[in-house]
Amino acid sequence: ETGVTQSPTHLIKTRGQQVTLRCSSQSGHNTVSWYQQALGQGPQFIFQYYREEENGRGNFPPRFSGLQFPNYSSELNVNALELDDSALYLCASTTSGTGGLGYTFGSGTRLTVV
Amino acid sequence: GQQVMQIPQYQHVQEGEDFTTYCNSSTTLSNIQWYKQRPGGHPVFLIQLVKSGEVKKQKRLTFQFGEAKKNSSLHITATQTTDVGTYFCGREDGGSQGNLIFGKGTKLSVKP
């Protein structure tokens, strides 16, 4: 079974630009969550998608938006990038009724805003 | 949802010593999950605890869930250099398969 894959692995953007990050969930997983992890900090919950609908959102502004596709893959879009958006963006997938299997994380996209 | 509090923030041990990290919540938790993140890596799921007073073991790792379901601990016996990393606890906000909210983690370094 394949794990969670994210692309790209690294990205450099200029302040004010827009970025799209992509995530393919683990086979059999229908729920995808996105996290922002600043250096030395814990992952901060951005939002979660289940059956192509947003299923919860953390304390992030509307310029952070997402999509989930019928194959359960997902995108994270960030508009009007700010310097503080520089972080590791992690995608995690799981399935409803995990039975204690937790979330499977991808290796992340390292975004640098200059 | 409220963040869970983890202590200590950092722990430096000599190889062979034991290590414990604690996770505390002001509200009752439906479950608690533990993850390990190696330096430069991503979080990897270790275990989920659901029942009051639950104790689970994975080789040298022992996980406990408090009787009141407001705290949890991870204990590593006889640490090895491979245990290096940051250990996070996470609570599911809104019940099962809800949004996973992490603590700030405990960073463990092990001196050989």
Task: Please describe what this structure looks like.
The complex is a heterodimer of chains A (114) and B (112). Chain A has 114 residues and is mostly beta strands. Chain A is built from no helices and 11 strands. In chain A, a hairpin with a 6-residue loop joins strand 4 and strand 5. The model of chain A has no long low-confidence stretch (mean pLDDT 92). Chain B is mostly beta strands and 112 residues long. Helix content of chain B is 0%, strand content 54%. Chain B has strands at residues 5-7, 10-14, 19-24, 32-37, 43-49, 55-58, 61-65, 71-76, 85-93, 99-102, 106-111. In chain B, strands 2, 4, 5, 9, 10 and 11 form a 6-stranded mixed sheet that branches. Chain B starts with a strand and ends with a strand. The model of chain B has no long low-confidence stretch (mean pLDDT 93). At the A-B interface, strand 4, strand 5, strand 9 and strand 10 of A face strand 5 and strand 10 of B.
What are the main properties of this structure?
heterodimer; A: 114 residues; seven-stranded mixed beta sheet; four-stranded antiparallel beta sheet; 11 strands; 50% strand; B: 112 residues; mainly beta; five-stranded antiparallel beta sheet; 54% strand; globular
